Amino acid sequence: MMREKGSSRRDNIARLPSSSKTFFRPHSITKIDVQSIQDKGYQVIRGFGVDVIEFEQVFNRISNEQLYCSPRVGGICHQYSVEVNSDNFSQQMRTGGFHTDFMFQDKPPEYIGLLCLETDPKHPIYGRNQIVSMSVLLERLSSGFGLSVEDILQRNLPYHFANGQHFSVPLLHRCNGQLQFKFHQHLVTDGMYGDKFKEKEIETYMTQLHAAMIDVAEDICLDAGDLLVLSNHHALHRRGECSVSFNADNKTWRSRKMASIRFNL
């Protein structure tokens, strides 16, 4: 189990408690299609089931106990649902921004597993996921806007947080000889430089990125129990617009519910 850098405990590798493995039920999924995920950015596994304990156990085995633990998401498996009002990007009704998870970590997790526990009330129109493959995006940025890989590697994007932290990070990095995404569309900051020319340049670049991402993004529709496994290094992802419904009889809200796990191989 990998711990998030900067948490109260130092990074380490640990096994799940033996008690959590005692009642493990063998699952038909014993590995993921790494080649498909490298080529397309993702793999969809239909009918996995909605047992989140099993979800964690299966991927603990698949990853050889390299699950990513983050205090910010409450541990290993993050369960969340869309809310009428939320400051958390993953719980908002509006369309999310294309991004990678934990982009400010030195070594973000390689893969993400997204398990659909309950579909959107307006499924299958609302509550979809969208994936952008690296190879397809780079081709479109080249053919559409004349942006080479070297251009993208050198163009920093500004991120500025309320606590005073500043980051300038390009969309694309080289890590151990491999290209890797680090990006969060909704966190890129406007007006950081106080230089109108520079800010216009960034605005134009972001417009080009968004246009290319929208053009090549693949729509993924998950039913309850379906699992989406995607690359956190070689793909960008976002949530499509979601809805909520209110049952006046029992005074309850219904919305899209998901569980997520991050891991390495």
Describe the structure.
- This protein has helices spanning 34-40, 52-62, 134-145, 149-154, 196-216, and strands spanning 2-3, 42-45, 68-69, 78-81, 111-118, 129-133, 156-160, 166-170, 172-175, 178-181, 218-220, 227-231, 235-239, 244-247, 252-255, 257-263.
- It has 265 residues and is an alpha+beta fold.
- The protein folds into two domains: 36-132 and 220-263, Double-stranded beta-helix (4-Layer Sandwich), CATH 3.60.130; 134-214, no CATH class.
- The strands form six sheets. The chain has a five-stranded antiparallel β-sheet. It has a three-stranded antiparallel β-sheet with strand order 11-6-13. A two-stranded parallel ribbon has the order 1-3.
- The chain is globular, with a radius of gyration of 19 Å.
Write a brief caption for the model.
The chain has 2 domains: 36-132 and 220-263, Clavaminate synthase-like (Double-stranded beta-helix, 4-Layer Sandwich); 134-214, no CATH class. Helix content is 22%, strand content 27%.
Task: Give me some keywords for this one.
five-stranded antiparallel sheet; 27% strand; three-stranded antiparallel sheet; alpha+beta; globular; 5 helices; 265 residues; Double-stranded beta-helix; 16 strands
